[in-house]
Amino acid sequence: MNNDYNFEEVIKQFNYKGDLVDIQPYGAGHINDTFAVTFHRPHGNNVRYILQRINTRIFKEPEKLMENIENVTEFLKKKIIASGGNPKRETLNLVYTTNHKPFYCSSFGGYWRSYVFIEGAQTYQVVESLQHFYNAGKALGNFEELLSDFPAKKLHETIPNFHNTKIRYEEFLQVLAEDKMNRAKDVQKEIEFVLERGKETTVLVELLNSGKLPLRVTHNDTKFNNVMIDNDTGEGVCVIDLDTIMPGSALYDFGDSIRSGANPAEEDERDLSKVSMDLQLFEHFTRGFLEGTKHSLTDTEIEYLPFAAKLMTFECGIRFLSDHLNGDTYFKIHRENHNLDRARTQFKMVEDMDKKFNEMKAIVDKYR
Ligand code: ADP
Ligand code: GN1
Ligand code: MG
């Protein structure tokens, strides 16, 4: 356990009931520091909460970020109640501080927040069943549908230009020109791969700017481990990790889900022969997503779904490769060349999507 954190100070700020019995690092996110904290209630069971330190190197305005999360979860709660759902499980529930704030700014540094732990469900790094991925698609489509009348103006942009692939590409060119760590010489093949495809990075940005694609309230970080899957029913019970909720495109959410879930291997798999874009997985997610959105996507959105899957995968690869060249300052790494390994899996997926592009289009047409 990392002793840099003064848990005693942090834990007493939140409205937890019972005696603290355990604190454990939790989950496999690349950004925040996440812990599961367990309390024992007198005459009762143990109760768990999620406690997170927000990564303020990445999220520079945590107060605004928390305002987004409060507004969105309150909005979702009302809708879930109105449709007879369970608001304690189907959306994140913040635990407030004793001062009625949604976060605590600690004396030793860092912004902390806490959520009710969603029990009886789990997240997966790799999809283990087609049904799970179909259900994740349904849950994410439904999430967008529920937020379709959320007042987008109320949202702060927590990371400006997050999915502006054109700007991501320009930033890559800059990092490459600087080559701070002198690593470019060892990754020429990957650099070439990016440079050859640079032109494609403007497509969605231009469609959005010209109004041909609608701006919606989107999640923007829809990797499979950001959907909690119910242990009994296999349903996508709750969409979590709401740090990047911002105005965006449904194509970002669809594309990022395919990027992370349609690959039967881990995101950092070193044996690239195991990495691919599995068409069966693609089909299950697509069917679920289109059902979840209640078929409300426009023709242009539907037309660009396969392209978005490829572009979001390419964008993520660019981000991993940029971070590798830049000395691994953004994504958490756990071994040498970790971001390079991650970039390679993304580029392998892009290549595979190129080969299977017509089949992906045919699948989308089947369910539109
Ligand atoms: P990061 O931004 O670092 O990815 P997440 O908010 O996704 O952080 O949390 C990391 C992991 O913690 C998730 O993948 C999930 O397994 C777990 N987790 C997060 N929130 C909850 C919750 N409310 N209940 C249960 N598990 C959760
Ligand atoms: C990060 O936070 P996490 O691990 O769910 C990243 C995503 C990337 C993803 C790649 C805020 O997601 O954009 O697609 O890693 N989140 C942020 O695995 O940058
Ligand atoms: Mg996450």
Automatic annotation (TrEMBL):
Pfam families: APH (PF01636). It comes from the Bacteria. The keyword Kinase applies. One of its GO terms (molecular function) is kinase activity. Keywords: Kinase, Transferase. InterPro entries: Aminoglycoside_PTrfase (IPR002575), Kinase-like_dom_sf (IPR011009), Pseudomonas-type_ThrB (IPR050249). Residues 22-265 form the Aminoglycoside phosphotransferase domain. The keyword Kinase applies. This is Ser/Thr protein kinase RdoA (MazF antagonist). It comes from Clostridium punense. The lineage of its organism: Bacteria, Bacillati, Bacillota, Clostridia, Eubacteriales.
